Amino acid sequence: MMIPLKNILDKYKLKPKGVIHVGSNDADEHGEYIGCGIERFVYIEPCKEAFEALSKKVTDQRAILINVACGEHECNMPMYVSHQNKGMSNSLLEPVLHLKQHPDIIFDDVEVVHVVPLDKLPIEKEKYSLLVTDCEGYDGEVMKGAKETLKDIDIVYSEVQRGMTREGNMLIDEFEKLLDKEGFIIVEEFWPSPSLTWGDAVFIRKTLINV
């Protein structure tokens, strides 16, 4: 997480009931969540190799681990896979500018994964108020399938795009409009480099910050 979560929570005086993390890989953020006082966790990771690593790493009995991808519609889709950097660049969208920005990451494999709308997953969603998505450009599709889930969410922390990092990824302006309709406003964004088209952004429910 390029924007420290604790800084966000302290700044806006928020305390999440729990976190749903879509595209969690092996849940490097688990310790950070615990440090923020979060006590419930849902980690959603579609790729076999990453999910196996997740299952071995996170043994916390409070954590729910789910081996699917999330999107607007339920289906099977090919995932573009790189076995470098622990598969953190795997995506349901074909890499475009990502190939130029990260020439060291080679996508040389495809894995068919099951996609399920977040709204359809058997989670007690009222127990979770933080939604994190790190879906390599597919985050907008995740939000389209999470409209019921978003009703219980206070904070959305997501990867965002300002260019065609991957074929068909939603740009940040459209992403903002989508979440605006669900009652959220962008409060923070971070781009790691002027030459990169991907970054992180945080959205908070408008009613919590008097907007």
Structure description:
- By secondary structure, the protein is of the alpha/beta class.
- It has one domain: Vaccinia Virus protein VP39 (Rossmann fold).
- Strands 3-2-1-6-7-9-8 form a 7-stranded mixed sheet, sandwiched between helices. Strands 4-5 form a two-stranded antiparallel sheet.
- A hairpin with a 7-residue loop joins strand 8 and strand 9.
Key words describing this protein structure:
single chain, 211 residues, alpha/beta, Rossmann fold, 7-stranded mixed beta sheet, two-stranded antiparallel ribbon, 6 helices, globular
Q: What is the succession of H and E elements? A: HEHEHEEHEEHEHEE
Shape: globular
Query: pLDDT below 50 for ≥5 consecutive residues: which ranges?
Result: none
- Main sheet attributes: strand count, strand direction, barrel closure: 7 strands, mixed
The CATH homologous superfamily is called Vaccinia Virus protein VP39
Helix content: 10-25%
Number of helices: 6
Instruction: Kindly name the structural category.
Output: alpha/beta
Portion in beta strands: 15-25%
Known CATH architecture: 3-Layer(aba) Sandwich
Query: What does the average pLDDT come to?
Result: 96
Report how far the terminal alpha carbons are from each other: 25 Å
List the strand order in the largest sheet.
3-2-1-6-7-9-8
What is the CATH first-level class name? Alpha Beta
What is the CATH topology descriptor?
A: Rossmann fold
Total of domains: 1
Q: Return Rg in Å.
A: 16 Å
Number of strands: 9
SSE blueprint:
Elements: H1 5-12, E1 19-22, H2 30-35, E2 41-44, H3 48-57, E3 63-66, E4 75-81, H4 97-101, E5 109-115, E6 130-133, H5 139-144, E7 155-161, H6 172-181, E8 184-190, E9 198-205
Parallel strand pairs: 1-2, 1-6, 2-3, 6-7
Antiparallel strand pairs: 4-5, 7-9, 8-9
